[in-house]
């Protein structure tokens, strides 16, 4: 076999396609905000290891304005939606954004915080496992500054110093914007937007409508290498979008398009049989005779129950 032929053969093998390494670092589309308070990004900074030195506060709600990089941080004791809601209320005293980006964890989507957001703004999450990028970067910065504070004081108390740490951040020139976050306003936001969003060249995706693909699983950073890395379910490319980088939309075997778009690196092309031949079964739900022939209602391995289907019992192998 040539290398190309071997690759095509491997695309048919579950043992290969389910465990193929997933590429984590690649270029992503920019998260664009057109003006101050157009888009906030939010996340929780885990500070549980220092809670006994900081009045029982376990987390810090981190909220950052995407354009100006202006930062808000509010310590909270738990990540229950009620406590997270109170922290957001403190942030929103300074102004309410038009949009809010978080991940899909329950502290941001559980009731009552979901209802609270619905009354104020457009709250959404990405389908990717990646966190809000600006939040992730600023949390690394703040962790470093808190660590320096620990070293300089010889103590693990950060609560009293946090307001000054945040104020100093907002009063420092940001490496990306070239501006101090506190100085970005309606008078200079257009110029800043134009500087940050220079024209790029969109390109077509390598995927085509009808291609069969698996989706990368959102796994923790400590997941073992032999764990399954891709969905057992095989999807079909429904459409693509010419952007920089391009994105792909997929649908399941029922024809339902999956919410959100995917980068090419989050997809793996496969050559999957269109029938159920050689597909793994996770459970036999029921049995009945159809036209005198025994059939099983089976649940396919890695597929949701709406994909359950009747197959002849003679086709099922142990």
UniProtKB/TrEMBL annotation:
Q: Which PROSITE patterns match?
A: CHROMO_1, CHROMO_2, INTEGRASE
InterPro entries from the UniProt entry: Chromo-like_dom_sf, Chromo/chromo_shadow_dom, Chromo_domain, Chromodomain_CS, Integrase_cat-core, RNaseH-like_sf, RNaseH_sf
SUPFAM superfamilies (UniProt xref):
Chromo domain-like (SSF54160), Ribonuclease H-like (SSF53098)
User: One Pfam family name from the record?
Assistant: Chromo
Q: What is its main location?
A: nucleus
Q: Which residues form the Chromo domain?
A: 279-318
GO CC aspect terms:
chromosome; nucleus
Note the coiled coil stretches, chain numbering: none
GO terms, molecular function: nucleic acid binding
Integrase catalytic domain span: 17-189
| Upper classification of the organism | Eukaryota, Metazoa, Ecdysozoa, Arthropoda, Chelicerata
Q: Which UniProt keywords apply?
A: Nucleus
Q: Report whether Lipoprotein shows up as a keyword of the record.
A: no
- PANTHER family, per this entry? CHROMO DOMAIN-CONTAINING PROTEIN, INTEGRASE CORE DOMAIN CONTAINING PROTEIN
* Gene3D superfamilies noted in UniProt: 2.40.50.40, Ribonuclease H-like superfamily/Ribonuclease H
Cell location: Nucleus
Q: What is the protein name stated in its UniProt record?
A: Integrase catalytic domain-containing protein
Q: Which example biological process does GO assign this protein? A: DNA integration
Q: CDD domains, from UniProt?
A: CD_CSD
């Amino acid at each position: 076999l040539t290398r190309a032929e071997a690759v095509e053969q491997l695309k048919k093998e579950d043992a290969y396609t389910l465990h193929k390494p997933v590429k984590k670092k690649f270029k992503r589309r920019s998260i664009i905000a057109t003006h101050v308070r157009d888009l906030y990004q939010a996340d929780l900074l885990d500070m549980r290891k220092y809670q006994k030195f900081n009045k029982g506060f376990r987390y810090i709600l981190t909220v950052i304005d995407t354009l100006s990089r202006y930062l808000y941080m509010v310590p909270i004791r738990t990540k229950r939606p009620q406590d997270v809601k109170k922290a957001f209320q403190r942030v929103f005293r300074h102004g309410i954004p038009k949009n809010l980006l978080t991940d899909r964890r329950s502290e941001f989507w559980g009731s009552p915080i979901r209802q609270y957001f619905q009354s104020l703004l457009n709250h959404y999450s990405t389908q990717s496992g990646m966190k809000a990028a600006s939040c992730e970067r600023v949390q690394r910065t703040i962790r470093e500054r808190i660590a320096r504070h620990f070293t300089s004081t010889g103590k693990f108390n950060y609560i009293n110093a946090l307001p000054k740490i945040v104020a100093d951040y907002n009063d420092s020139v940001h490496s990306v914007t070239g501006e101090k976050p506190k100085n970005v306003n309606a008078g200079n936001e257009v110029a800043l937007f134009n500087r940050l969003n220079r024209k790029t060249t969109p390109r077509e995706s390598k995927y085509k409508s009808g291609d069969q693909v698996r989706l990368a699983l959102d796994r923790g950073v400590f997941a073992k290498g032999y764990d399954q890395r891709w969905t057992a379910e095989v999807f079909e490319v429904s459409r693509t979008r010419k952007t920089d980088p391009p994105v792909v939309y997929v649908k399941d075997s029922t024809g339902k398009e999956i919410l959100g778009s995917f980068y090419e690196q989050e997809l793996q092309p496969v050559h999957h049989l269109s029938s159920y031949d050689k597909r793994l079964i996770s459970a036999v739900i029921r049995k009945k005779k159809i036209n005198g022939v025994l059939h099983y209602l089976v649940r396919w391995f890695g597929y949701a129950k709406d994909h359950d289907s009747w197959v002849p019992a003679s086709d099922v192998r142990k």
